[in-house]
Amino acid sequence: MSNRFSPPADAQARRAVAPVICYPTETLPRPELKLYHRAREGATKVTEVIVPAREAAVFQVAAGQFFRISSIEGAQVGDLNLWNQNDIAERFYSGKTRALHGTHVTTGERLWSNLPHMRPMATIIADTLEWYGIDSYGGSVHDVIGTRCDPYTGNLLSTDHYHHCCHSNLTRALADHLGLSLPEAELHVHDVLNVFMCTGFTRDTGQYFMKASPVRPGDYLEFFAEIDLLGALSACPGGDCSSEHSSDEAACFPLLIEVFAPATAALAGWKAPARNAYDGSHGR
Predict the structure, then answer these.
(1) According to the 3-state scheme, what is the secondary structure of 43-99?
(2) Averaged in consecutive runs of 10 residues, what is the pLDDT profile of the chain (284 residues)?
(3) Helices assigned H by DSSP within 73-190
(4) What is the CA radius of gyration of the chain?
(5) DSSP 8-state class, residue 185
(6) Do 280 and 118 contact (CB within 8 A), yes or no?
(7) Helices (H), ranges, 129-269
(8) CB-count exposure of residue 262 (10 Å: 0-12, 13-18, 19+)
């Protein structure tokens, strides 16, 4: 698209204005990582779930437990949804997580829930890919900018009807777990944490890009559950997302979810975070 308007005389000066961080996090409550790590050392595995390639699976984690998502057979990314196990109206809010922590998350950062709850749902306590940082393309790992591959966008772009994209995978898994119809379950599927996915925005057009994930078997992302969680993870049909997604062409692999329970009293004094303290009056 051509630019119909010429730049003003002070265009460079306007571009040179320094940015301001929208949400400074100096006053944000900090996770007790030392406590979490000590509790994790004595934790024992209580369950595991294998997520088949191009499918999704549901898992549950009690508040105060840990869960780990691992690559086990080949480079594979996963799309993660989280809900409050006791009230699925409370769910992961990728947009506010992005606003607080940035486009990608790693150790010490948290996954926040939607309004009006607005509290930490899970804290990342270990990330074997934290070494990756930000590459020369502006790419990094574990993003909260992608929305999940879905059949509606696929149909819009190619008129295809592909049913093993992450949105549909998550919908089927949640419907089966909760005994909901597909239309009922679909309303609860939401924007994801793209586990292991390497993404960013192009510098010239600002478009969302993906590239081959650096994940290898043995890599993992581990969380502390701040509240009782219901989770669903889709093993994306894009595999390592090096070429395309939402197709049967990419090499895809399963993912492993493990849940660990700490020893009794290992979290002495810890309390699950309360709902956001805003009074809800909205000025009335």
Answers:
(1) CEEEEEEEECCCCEEEEEECCCCEEEEEECCCCCCEEEEEEECCEEEEEECHHHHHH
(2) 84 96 93 97 97 98 98 98 98 98 98 98 98 97 95 88 94 98 98 98 94 98 98 97 85 98 94 96 96
(3) 94-101, 151-158, 166-178, 182-186
(4) 20
(5) H
(6) no
(7) 151-158, 166-178, 182-186
(8) buried
